[in-house]
Design brief:
This protein is α/β, with parallel strands linked by helices and about 350 residues long. It contains 13 helices and 15 strands. The strands form 2 sheets. Strands 1, 2, 3, 4, 5, 6, 7, 8 and 9 form a 9-stranded mixed sheet that branches.
């Protein structure tokens, strides 16, 4: 080792002595910070354990944050598409939805989860406040059970937070479902209507879908909800799903208020969905999957691509016809050219769903 390199290493070690420990290893949750755990699906390993993915978001919602004002300015720009009225600006629905885009995400945070008689430490949160890591878990709970892992809070913090995951067995039936215009009316292909549905209107379940999903749940299906929606909409989406649909894992997208176009963000979802669905199928390689989406954007193309990659896993592709979208023979011929007719269906009425044999 050269003398110059040795000198550099010595200086680096000296500097590290003055770096706070929390900076190197992550700081704990503070009393003015909040954490949201997103529901996930655990998978069973060959060693007889469960692998539980943990996904959380740490944020600070205090009003004095400078970044909030900057974020509010950016958000106002794309909300102009909706011709925001003073009444809408002061509506409770808008306030509840928009506030999640204005919180301060906390980076470099580390938390601990109580697993049995041990505490497992997380990785450090990223700049967006999100933490993702996986823990090994042993339990006698039956497959299908939702297990809860409590957060260990600092001394003096009496709040309770819990991570939650469903124990999904090696074999079974899974539903991978889109959200917007599949189980919830969103009108994604209409810019103004989309923003109104996202920020100003109470969420409306797609006719017939809650009953259909209930029937699938009775057949033993596990549910994975994926969407091009940003994680900031999770609090309102989870309330909607809990009210109308079976419980399941969630996969949404990371969105920054500095992104140039909210509309383009929603629509540029093909690569994200293919990668997300592939990850789920690879986690449960012995499952049969029903893929449910709509014709408004690129769900047909996404699901056809997934079938080509995992033909033995895809049991059925169901595409809801969205008014104003292309459902003509040319698109169907092009998209599903390599997918057997028995593997996919387009539907437009709730009655049709009851006739589909799954």
């Amino acid at each position: 080792m050269s003398i110059h390199l040795k000198q550099l290493l010595h200086k680096l070690r000296t500097l590290l002595l003055f770096v706070p420990r929390w900076f190197l290893h992550g700081s704990p949750l503070k009393s003015d910070e909040e954490i949201i755990f997103f529901p996930t699906g655990a998978n069973h390993t060959s060693e007889g354990k469960w692998q539980v993915p943990i996904h959380a978001w740490i944020y600070d919602s205090e009003e004095h944050a400078l970044s909030r004002e900057l974020s509010r300015h950016v958000i106002r720009e794309f909300l102009e598409l909706a011709d925001l009225t003073e009444e809408q600006d002061h509506s409770e629905v808008f306030k509840q939805r928009i506030k999640w885009f204005l919180v301060d995400s906390e980076r470099n945070k580390r938390v601990g989860l109580r697993v049995g008689d041990k505490t497992v430490q997380s990785s450090r949160s990223e700049a967006n406040g999100h933490i993702t890591f996986t823990i090994d878990y042993q339990t006698t709970a039956k497959p299908g059970t939702w297990v809860k892992l409590p957060l260990t809070t600092p001394l003096g913090d009496s709040r309770t937070f819990e991570a939650e995951a469903q124990l999904i067995p090696e074999q079974g039936l899974s539903v991978i479902s889109d959200i917007d215009d599949t189980i919830k009316i969103s009108e994604v292909i209409d810019k103004k209507a989309l923003i109104e549905h996202v920020f100003f209107k109470e969420y409306e379940a797609t006719p017939g879908m809650p009953g259909f999903y209930t029937e699938l749940e009775k057949k033993g299906a596990y549910f994975h909800y994926i969407s091009a929606s940003p994680w900031q909409l999770y609090p309102s989406l989870i309330a909607f799903v809990d009210a109308h649909y079976p419980k399941g894992s969630f996969s949404l997208r990371y969105f920054r208020v500095t992104d140039s176009s909210f509309i383009r963000f929603f629509r540029s979802s093909m690569d994200y969905k293919i990668a997300t669905i592939s990850t789920i199928i690879q986690r449960y390689p012995q499952h049969e999957f029903i893929l449910i989406g709509d014709s408004g954007e690129n769900d047909p193309e996404v699901y056809a691509t997934i079938f080509k990659r995992y033909p033995q896993n895809v049991k059925k592709i169901l595409i809801r016809k969205v008014k104003g979208s292309d459902t003509g023979p040319e698109r169907k011929k092009q998209v599903f050219a390599d997918v057997p007719d028995s593997k996919w269906d387009l539907y437009d009425t709730p009655l049709y769903l009851s006739l589909i044999h799954i």
